Amino acid sequence: MLRLSDLHASYGPAPVLQGVSLHVDRGETVALLGPNGAGKSTLLAAVTGTIPRRRGGVVFDEENLVDQKSHSIVARGVALVPEGRLVFAPFSVEDNLLLGTVRLRDRREAMGERFGYVYRLFPRLEERRRQPAGTLSGGEQQMLAIGRALMSKPRLLLLDEPFLGLAPLVVQEIRESLETLRKSGLTLLIVEQKLDIALAFAQRAYVLIKGRAVLEDTTANLAKRPDLSDLYFSLAISSASARSSP
Question: Mean per-residue pLDDT for 205-225?
Fold first, then answer.
């Protein structure tokens, strides 16, 4: 469903992604692992067109997105749940969800169905639908951010650190909801720093270090590697050392 080929991207003149190639098959759940500064969030931003791609290919469902603007990419079925949730605090839960429908071609007809879909997945949001988003707990705001992305009827859902800063019980609740989405056939690409969560949830994983994909395997194979933690952290340390050297 998604294929990146030799993708380069940057914020201004400083390069971040330096030739990343990867693929995500239809219905698959893939994790992006790596330390802070590895380029994981930048990769999602490059896929969604919110930062410029310097060169390389971004093909989604056999269509080249590299010259497409972000609003067109959303309309084609790609949705992002950003790190930090980024809900509109003064707006109600329902209004936040409504913003997720703006690129639907049949918006009025689809809205009722999409609200029902999200509320079945996250019943707590329906209970708080009139409540300002800024008054929700962190876990509820994460549910809202995921729900807002689902309102656009995506075929590919990108999630940037969806479990960051959440209590263990809330992490489990959101994991179960994402498992429901996966079983429904939705394709997921998830950025995650915690190895245990990624290996338990995804089917394959890529490790990004310094803007490059340095390791790729099934999570079943990665989980069998006794040296995985050591390898992961040694790559991170070597990357940090390379950045700090003159």
Answer: 88
